[in-house]
Amino acid sequence: MTKLLHIDSSILGDHSAGRALAAEVIAHFKAKEAALEVTYRDVVAQPLPHLDFELFSQQGKDIPADAPRREDHLESAQVLAEFEAADIIVVASPLYNFGVPSQLKAWIDRFMVAGRTFRYVPTGIEGLVGQKKIVLVGTRGGIYEAGTPAAAFEHDVSYLKAVFASLGQQDVTAIIAEGLSLRVYRAMVVRTVRRSWPQQKKRLQRFNLSFFVKTIGVFVPRWLSVTLVSANRRQRVYFIKP
Ligand SMILES: Cc1cc2nc3c(=O)[nH]c(=O)nc-3n(C[C@H](O)[C@H](O)[C@H](O)COP(=O)(O)O)c2cc1C
Predict the structure, then answer these.
(1) The overall pTM is greater than 0.85
(2) How many angstroms does the Cα of residue 139 sit away from the middle of ligand 1?
């Protein structure tokens, strides 16, 4: 049975575009495999304490019954176990102050464990967790697309890609919705469809929706399309497959 780990990290609750997008991604995977085992972790609703020396020094180790802060250690172990067990990982990450939410960083700090999920080798580091399918959902108020003035300020999806690349992950897809704060009003409808990209493009043109969809690279998932319904011409949604 395939195991999927779903991580949400937006502080905007029901108003979060990323949460809605990630839910559609999960629905897609569930539609493909009814028996899919989904583990959900909302790092805002259940924040992990920041990594400190005490937690760091016990990572990946057995926790004695009388260990101080045993609950925190057990939670660390749980995060690590969820990460290792997952075949598919879907991470929704909004851009906050040019980076990932600190709650999400706390989650990353729990599974990047030397000697367990990666090891140091003469050429750098090497992943120890095998291959997984990684889907990153990045949401941003502004526009950070490559070639735009703010591109160098984007450290959310690019950072997450670096994290997963360092673990040797090769199947990483990023779905980006940006320009989301460029209008006060926005409405978002996310739909999962089974259409090829040319079919999908035709459909979008037919509806003449006022947004701009751009694809980067050669890959566009056949299974996912995102429709932003808004009067904002500057909103952009695009897919990246490195
Ligand atoms: C605390 C905070 C910091 C933010 N920082 C940025 C930023 O640096 N750049 C940006 O483009 N948008 C920024 N935004 C806007 C969010 O990226 C935008 O609201 C996005 O839609 C959030 O994703 P979500 O809808 O999934 O929550 C920030 C929003 C918040 C709440």
Answers:
(1) no
(2) 7
